[in-house]
Automatic annotation (TrEMBL), chains A, B:
This is 5,6-dimethylbenzimidazole synthase. Transmembrane segments: none annotated. InterPro entries: BluB (IPR012825), Nitroreductase (IPR029479), Nitroreductase-like (IPR000415), Nitroreductase/BluB (IPR050627). One of its GO terms (biological process) is cobalamin biosynthetic process. Homooctamer.
């Protein structure tokens, strides 16, 4: 702690225009399912996006992530078949009107996007005891999600769309990607160029669920049991 | 799906300068423990940061997050005491040299930062069946982590530092924040203005663990069992 060479430096300041750029990317980011163009992604652009992911925070500097780049059409066909099976199970869980609405939603772009990225978490990386993960074993999964969110924002700034497909039986993906036991898929992403994009979350635009008021989500000091959002369930 | 009013629009394009701003924020973001200044955070600045969090993606548009703003010194003292107990347990898990090094690290800014934010996930929000969460129950936790990462980046662009404290027994935080059974703390964050900041991850600067090469983390098509990073464990 006392080594004078190990010390913080003057913090980078950001201008109002730079802040605006960040907020614009955050607000323009969407979960894309149907707007993918077939054009391949230039290697340098993909590299920048993956570098952004790799700059994410990680518990104990564990960097537990890997990025499996899936372009092969046969493998994407197999992944799509696994999605279709799980999605049929999912659809059956909804009742009546909601089930019909669910059936009408397009929820993935596995085949339409030219690139799929499986972002994985190697739960054994860093050894048995990882700083910061001693009391919450899932911190490595959370670190991997931070990498996904960085990737998503970088992709949007590059003109790429990203869609996160979560409707899989985990064991199906594990088999299709030959994952060892210590590795989990945290996010299966569809990635490709887009010309068009929804301006609000697609599930909001399609009336699936409304946007909550931020005011109802902020609490002072401790949980407020009369929070208005509770009644939204 | 056929309603012509529900359609994507021309996607916002970002300039090279805007992309640069995003990448600079991503690369300047640090986990801050010790550089917090006591100055309060202006309400409009805090609002922008929380709006960025609330613009995160969420499974089934569930928006499962809440933001508990903890300024009260007595409550922060109690949270700090809970951290100290857990951290003593954590320290005992490391052996020899590593334990001494661990003991010398400052891992939180609970009392030094003027604001703590508990970002929670309400696992019951959105009802029993949530679109996209049918096959992975933890997607709501992952959505909440996306909100944390948005918050973290926005804070950095505003000149604020953020530190994520994960060394708690979950039941301690649950009691201190009066959380109902359906709500989990995903991230306990320390937030405050900073003048100085590490230019690389602090655990890297202090020699705890080295940065992995991105090349070793990228795989084509499926898991490669001879991946070089495996040997880093």
């Amino acid at each position: 702690m006392s080594d004078p060479l190990i010390a913080p430096e003057r913090a980078r300041q950001f201008t109002p225009a730079e802040r605006r750029a960040l907020y614009d990317v955050i607000n323009a980011r969407r979960d894309v399912r149907n707007e993918f163009l077939p054009d391949p992604i230039a290697p340098d652009m993909l590299r920048r996006v993956l570098e952004a992911a790799h700059a994410a925070p990680s518990v104990g500097f564990m960097q537990p992530w890997n990025f499996i780049l899936i372009r092969n059409a046969a493998r994407r066909q197999a992944v799509h078949a696994a999605f279709a099976e799980a999605n049929a199970e999912a659809q059956a869980m909804f009742d009546g009107e909601k089930r019909n609405k669910y059936a009408g939603l397009k929820l993935e772009g596995i085949l339409k996007s030219p690139l799929n990225i499986a972002v994985t978490c190697d739960r054994s990386r860093g050894g048995k005891v990882v700083l910061g993960r001693t009391h919450n074993r899932d911190m490595d999964l959370y670190s991997t999600v931070c990498a996904v969110q960085n990737l998503w924002l970088a992709a949007r700034a590059e003109g790429l769309g990203v869609g996160w497909v979560s409707i899989f039986r985990q064991e199906d993906l594990r088999g299709l990607l030959s994952l060892p036991d210590t590795v989990e898929v945290v996010a299966y992403l569809c990635v490709g160029h887009i010309d068009e994009c929804f301006t609000q979350p697609e599930l909001q635009a399609r009336g699936w669920r409304h946007k909550l008021s931020l005011d109802d989500l902020i609490m002072d000091d401790h949980w407020q049991s009369n929070a208005p959002v509770e009644r939204d369930v």
